[in-house]
Write a structure and sequence with these properties.
transport, transmembrane transporter activity, single chain, 75% helix
Length: 504
């Protein structure tokens, strides 16, 4: 048995050079750092759009007359459609062309954002958010696949994925800041319309800089698999979202089991297909599987936690949208600093330690936030928790994509990239739904013993936020033992197969 197989992970494979594959296995691609900047911009747009509307939700709800349930679906629907269609989007990127998919995905995302920014009713906004998720499902895997094939190995690969990971972790908080600025000084609609100029810049830059790359050989689409995974994930998230009406409601009892059955059928179809949507060899590796589970649990805690933090800052502490957005900056700054420091040590210490300690630090931050009170201050009750979360998220997201994509063949770059993003988005979608149920139950229990006064209502809200933060902490804590026992590659596996002369 070879040393690499004994560790449970293969060295990063190096794509063969071809006219369709601009990644040079010797590491010489003069435009790849510009490509990284373009991909980072696209990734920031996709990630921040999951949270940028959080700040604007109270204003959008008032303007469009949305119910509380519809308000939650503005966030959940984007993550649901995005996650459900990511695997298909990844295969389209592989077969149709990653550059082409990137440009079309970016353009479509801009159009959907324009429709959302001009929405005059709740259903128009929800439809636009769903359309955003659809094009994001094409854009995100194409972006990460381009990064994978252009940085096949070496320390440059670690640096590139560190940038990508920092954006994945900090982009959500950046969305809160940008959402606050736009809502305060312009309109909540600009939280969607801002994507248009960003998309134009990315597309104009991508056309001359990015060269096309695509998979060769078997490029038939797995239509049955695409239908099963989309319906399965959709049913699962819808079932959890309906738990707000009670865990014994017929929607919960029907759609959650239906989702599990459809996903089980998807796995069966993939195991027998000679052109699977998601090759099971991608999931079979223990190290990669551990990274996927860690990403799912972290995505749930991050999106669910930030959603209720926004409500607490605005509704209980009385922050303006701008103040609420700026209040999340310490977490973003901590992620950026942590990512910079960690990327320098990652080749020596490996990924097991940071990916084990990271969830524990994030959980500590969420537990700290679960101690918030009605009359507490931001500095004492919120800020320390945000800094802890930022430090922990840096330890998770910097190595996560690198580990999850180690040993992936160039043919499957898009599919594997889609799987990495999908687990985080689906985790966030389910997490938002479950934490909303827990929040609602805690609020109802608190109001049952109160007198309906404004103070009692605020206390009920805080009780709900405390419950959401606590259970988010429990969820991300479970990622620590998963990473400890499953994510165990050697430090040198992170460097791939780039020659030693290019590692200094």
């Amino acid at each position: 048995m070879s040393e690499s197989s004994a560790t449970g992970v293969s060295p990063v494979s190096t794509p063969s050079p071809s006219p369709q594959n601009p990644a040079d296995p010797t590491g010489h691609n003069p435009r790849r750092w510009w490509l990284l900047a373009i991909v980072a911009l696209a990734q920031l747009t996709v990630v921040l759009d999951g949270t940028i509307v959080n700040i604007a939700l109270p204003h959008a709800q008032s303007d469009l007359g949305m119910s509380d349930g519809d308000r939650t679906w503005v966030v959940t629907l984007y993550a649901l459609v995005f996650g459900a269609l990511l695997l298909l989007g990844g295969r389209i990127a592989d077969y149709w062309g990653r550059k082409r998919s990137f440009i079309v995905g970016m353009a479509g995302f801009a159009v959907a954002s324009t429709l959302g920014g001009m929405a005059q009713s709740t259903w128009e906004l929800l439809a636009a958010r769903g359309l955003q998720g659809l094009f994001a499902a094409l854009l995100a895997p194409a972006s990460l696949a381009l990064l994978t094939v252009n940085f096949p190995g070496g320390k440059d690969r670690i640096k590139a994925f560190s940038v990508y990971g920092a954006i994945a972790g900090g982009g959500a908080a950046v969305g809160l800041v940008l959402g606050g600025v736009l809502t305060e000084y312009a309109s909540w609609r600009w939280c969607l319309l801002v994507n248009v100029p960003i998309a134009i810049v990315a597309i104009v830059a991508a056309i001359p800089i990015i060269r096309e790359s695509k998979a060769h050989g078997n490029t038939r689409y797995d239509v049955p698999g695409a239908v099963l995974v989309a319906l399965g994930l959709g049913s699962l998230v819808f079932g959890f979202a309906q738990a707000e009406n009670g865990w014994s409601s017929w929607q919960v009892l029907v759609f959650i089991p239906l989702g599990v059955i459809l996903l089980a059928l998807f796995v069966l179809v993939e195991s027998r297909s000679n052109h699977p949507l998601l090759p099971l060899r991608i999931l079979a590796d223990k190290v990669r599987g551990g990274a996927f589970i860690t990403g799912t649990l972290t995505g749930a805690a991050l999106l669910g936690g930030l959603l209720f933090l926004t409500f607490h800052l605005q509704i209980v502490l009385g922050f303006s949208p701008l103040e609420s957005g700026l209040a999340s900056l310490p977490m973003t700054a901590t992620i950026m600093v942590g990512a910079t420091v960690l990327s320098k040590f990652l080749p020596r210490i490996g990924v097991r330690v940071p990916m084990t300690v990271g969830p524990l630090v994030v959980a500590a931050g969420l537990l700290y936030l679960s101690r918030i009170t009605v009359d507490g201050s931001y500095a004492a009750e919120v800020l320390p928790g945000l800094i802890l979360m930022g430090a922990g998220l840096a330890m998770i997201f910097v190595p996560l994509q690198n580990v999850a994509l180690a040993g992936i063949d160039a043919h499957d770059a898009g599919a594997a990239s889609a799987a990495v993003t999908a687990v985080q988005q689906i985790g966030g979608s389910i997490g938002s739904a479950v934490f909303t149920v827990l929040y609602t139950s805690a609020v109802a229990a608190s109001l049952a013993g109160g007198y309906g006064t404004p103070v009692a209502q605020l206390q009920a809200f805080v009780d709900g936020y405390q419950a959401a933060f606590f259970w988010a902490a429990v969820g991300v804590f479970l990622a620590a033992p998963v990473a400890f026992f499953m994510v165990r590659p050697r430090p040198q596996d992170l460097l791939g197969s780039e020659p030693a002369m290019h590692l200094g």
